[in-house]
# Entry
Amino acid sequence: SSELTQDPAVSVALGQTVTITCQGDSLRSFSAGWFQQKPGQAPVLVMVGKTRRPSGIPDRFSGSASGNTASLTITGAQAEDEADYYCDCRDNSADRVIFGGGTKLTVL
Amino acid sequence: QLQLQESGPGLVKPSETLSLTCSVSTDSITNSNYYWAWIRQPPGKELEWLATISFNGNTFYSPSLMSRLTISQDTSKNQFSLKLKSVTAADTATYYCARVRMGGGWGFQAFDSWGQGTLVTVSS
# Structure
């Protein structure tokens, strides 16, 4: 399969921990990228794989992976983390990139 | 700080060609650590990767759109461009240009800097 699957919506209480998942066969071969997108704004890369966090991204964002599933964890979610989150991955059958359908994160 | 700026018409007629340019400042598009890409997002929908061009001009395309897409670069102007021909209403979207951070093992999917996006509407 050349698709990435995400839960459409997830919620978390302020200050608690939340994990957003992404599933797809390509994740067995390549790392996931994770993007945060707020309304009316361009996406922002927040994590690639398990260890690559761009400068300026808070360390409450972390990544992990196992088998065909990649995860983005926010430890101590803040109100400003409320956004849509997209995963992406290089497709293992071609030189192309695929995106997940996105997860809307609500911070309660 | 790296800046990417998309430019092009906001309205394109059906069957015509959509042409967009991304101007890159403070970094060279020939820097071997980076590739350059176009991504779009229809209103209220998810992101869709369109095409990527390497620092030395190698091109990669979405298989579903490959027959209609051309990505190119103008190193003298530090710009890269996208052409999408035979557009329909389904091509209405915000189009983003982005930098791909290839160096250091980040990978083909690491779009680490984005333009603000430009909304292109296909309508007669």
